[in-house]
Here is the input.
Amino acid sequence: MRNQSEETTMANRQPIGFFDSGVGGISVLKKAVELLPYEDFIYFGDSVNAPYGDKDVETIKKLSFDAADFLLSFNCKAIVVACNTATSAAILEIREKYSHIPVIGIEPALKVAIDHTEDGKILVLATNRTLQEKKFRILSDKFAESRKIISLPLPGLVEIIESGDRYQERSYDYLREHLKNVDRDISAVVLGCTHYPFIKPSLRRIFGEETLIVDGSEGTARHLKDVLEEKGLLYKGEMEGTVRIFNSSKDKRLIELSQSLLEEDSDHN
Here is the structure.
């Protein structure tokens, strides 16, 4: 019979699961790996159904439950919903269904943008579904009294990133067209989709170095660490953990792209 200490150690050694509607959640996973180097991670990208942002809420919930069930087949000790759309549309139901483990979501880093700029407008870039959901409206209304917040959906951008826009040209042309009417008095750009951090170089070409560009990946990774510590699930080992990447698509290029994005120098973004 195992003692309580042995059971705790076994639970601590279980992997942490991440899922997203494709490769975008790798931006969150990257931060988590940096912050929790001894943990094991399982990543599931649902590229077959990407993007989630153009789907109805019930479909997003079903896809999210399917992804979570896949991760739980690896006995994950926690799940990170590394998708703004799934968090906005389904996080409450996900937490209710999988109440036996921590479920961490992500949301646009509006507070970070407000705290790190003194004035000027805040531009939030996200999917249609994220911007339409009550969760984002409540967050936006919270800060709307003190700052002008502009929200802009970018349909089609996720598909460009999923295609592996390694040299940024397609994303730059897309952004230049879709942002041409946006007031340039922008002090911060908030990336409300986990795919978007991978096209920061294109955004820099448009907004320049002075404009703050933020996303919720670091805050989510820190929250994950805090929750694991609080619940006694943090693994403090001596050897680096492992990362296993899966995708709903049979296209091996997507696994290779995911691995490449994970290993890419953070300074490049």
